[in-house]
Fold each of these.
Amino acid sequence: MSDELEARVRAAGLLTPGRAVVVLYSGGGDSTCLLDLAARIAGAPAVTALHLNYGLRDAAAGDERHCRATCAALGVALAVRRPRRPAVGNLQAWARDQRYGAAAALAEPRGADVAAGHTATDQVETILYRLASSPSRRALLGMRPRDGRLVRPLLMFTRADARAYCRARGLGWREDESNAADAYARGRIRGELVPALERIHPAAQANVLALAEILREEADVLSELVDAALADGDAIELARLRSLTPALRRLVVQRLADATAGRPAAGVARRAEEIAALPDSGTAALDLPGGVRATARSGRLRFGRTPNDRAPHGGAPVPGAEAPADGGNQRAERALNQPAEPAPKMQE
């Protein structure tokens, strides 16, 4: 099993001999599998493991000691960060900000990739979470194997595959009991929703993954249509926008908003009809979610940032407001210039 898994990861090309990579290493089974593969494929001198000790669990010190011992055994450099827990705010979002920010700080000077241990099992949980919490087409696309600097070499394997690899290689790992708890949405999906779907159909997880792959391929086709509609770059004539089908109109305004925000500006597509209704004469503006503003001037539409990143009438985030459950992904992955990733488990 371990040889086959390694061969498939090598063939995928996300880890390559000699290419620098920062591995997000919690000490759990998935990240342990990933770290060992990175050392074997890229070579130990090219690998830096990053462990964040958030101090949130009684076992945190033991996790760090385990990571130090494993990295020493593999001959891999280890960087440990111990961020101070905030007094208020979304704890998981803060942890993601810290994790990806620290990874970017390590990776950028070296021109390195950042490798995360997300598996096919995580992919299913992510899609189901987004399906329940985000009414958009992007919710069903899941995670891509590569998003710019961020790579996910284990996406083709299940969580059970990763642990089987570790057992075959004689590698120990740490278990985070909070992953099985129902305090967070991820735990409820893992412990309740996925088993319920498998009782309905034993191939439920495989079918979710197959659907996501089909939709990602179709998303590439839709992206080409948006490119054609935005032949003028970062602006479009209102008359041209109105001539598009409603579906393409939504995609166009979402693309413009995302480019302005520097991240997915969730919810803008649902305002496409309001945007298209802006007047052809004079100047008019509409504040939108994600801290962006649509401005029509003499019939030409452009997007810009909302002044002070506030949009009282459009739903943009207000400083000090609590972020949504996966909102921290967008902030965290901006450090890597990546699209938003799901609310990942703390341990893996």
Note: The two ends are 21 Å apart (CA to CA).
Amino acid sequence: MPRALSVFRSRAARHASPARGRRVRLGAAVPAGILLALLVVALLPGAFAPGDPESCALSRSLEGPSLAHPFGFSVFGCDYLTDTLCAARTSLTVAALSVTGTVAIALLLGSLAGFCGGWVDALTSRATEVWTAVPLLLAAIVVLSALETRGVMSVSLVLVLVLFGWPAMVRLQRAGVLAASAQDYVTAAGALGASPSRVLVRHVLPNAVRPLLGYASAYAGLVIGVEATLTYLGVGLQQPVLSWGLQLLQAQNRLAQAPHLVVPAGFLVLAVGSLVVLGQQARDPLER
């Protein structure tokens, strides 16, 4: 009876896997499409923006939406659709730079810790524990408050070094390297005379890095949200940079008078939600 039950379960899982795969692909297609649209807008804002972000008229301040200007005008009389599309480039650039730096740190430290073991693993583990203990948002506020000018590059650097996204990624990469290193093909490669560096690069990393990349997508969404939060609190990006957080900061006392100023929040939710869902979809097949 138990044997028959196990055979039934295996057949049911085999028949369910195509449908599950289709659901995964469909679930990833929607956020991927949204992100692709945002990337195109970020790279070519002039192709979609109806005006010039530097062409503003105070006489049109807080003017409501119209057919020619569907998002209305900002506090400074700038076309709000143009500002919102141009702000997409800033927010996505901050996310890309921060995630790239964090993934690089995780790849280096996590791979060395998992592959070398010993004192390298112990030292890396203690360092991640110390960094994790520091409050994320408080540390970012303290460091950013000490900077006189806060542009995209400086904020991205602080997000990498202070927001402490790398400890979680280091642990994830270390676990992936440990799991991949225990596989028979890795042991066989070492027995056949491959150098440790070749084993790590050719046989371990290709399989160990996939969970990290899935997590990195979700972390990119976190970075966009944190950048907007810090900017809204007044310690993030500064003018003349355009960002969704800065637009919401300028609109905070005028939403009752001009409700259309909340539009950047919708773009923010779309970007963050798409990245988080895409990261989850990338990790789901690995967890099954």
Note: The two ends are 26 Å apart (CA to CA).
Amino acid sequence: MRCRIAPPGGLGAGDCTDRGFAKISLNQHKRHEPIRDAPPGKLFLINNQTMKREVIVSLTRPSLPRGARLGARRVVAIDLDPRAPAAVTYNTRANSLESRIEVRGGSWYEPIGSAKAVRGRRERFDAIIAVPPQIPGPGVFGPRYGGPDGTRYLIAVIDGGPLFLEKTHGRLWLPAISPANPEALSRRLEERFKEVSMVCKTERPFAPDEHESMKKGLFDYLRTLRSAGRSDFKEIGSRWSIFRNLFICASGPRMP
């Protein structure tokens, strides 16, 4: 099964923007029905039929796992926060979804198995939804830190995906931001998947102070990464900048 996106009007159709940023070598989705102003954590680009009756794993921090609301037969929700299982359980009961959602505590793929299959068998899923931290920084500054170039956890999700996706139709849904080394991200995706589609791109304005409030000197660090070709954003005057949200679907997992 290929990656599909939401139908026009389903979430507020509009034009995705692309205003002269550095080229990002991800394939454009041919059947482009874009979504306007969708923030990175919102993976509702997915058609309601895309996950109908499927089994998915959600590597996010949602109050209610998204896949269940999209018709998935079964959702395994994973979160490192020890408070998450109780919160998700409460919400699933309130929405009568407890029979379809299983909550597991742990980091990324650890709760569903290791790289080595147990007794020759490994749990596999029709789709993986992941929203990892991905803001670059010279050192840890908080929960949004994504490593020196922002790809530390993005790469971990991409590398682990083929081990836990169904070989014939498994898909990885992944939002990324253009400051997080998009060229390196593109290369890794194409190494691990046969088909990589840029479902949509949207612009996100920000002020330097937004990053400076996380860690002093962070905006200058982003400038350094950009000069080295490892980050992509535009400065608009002295007070504002713009980066892009990149909505990616990768299918056809390549077995390691």
Note: Residues 198 and 248 are 5 Å apart (CA to CA).
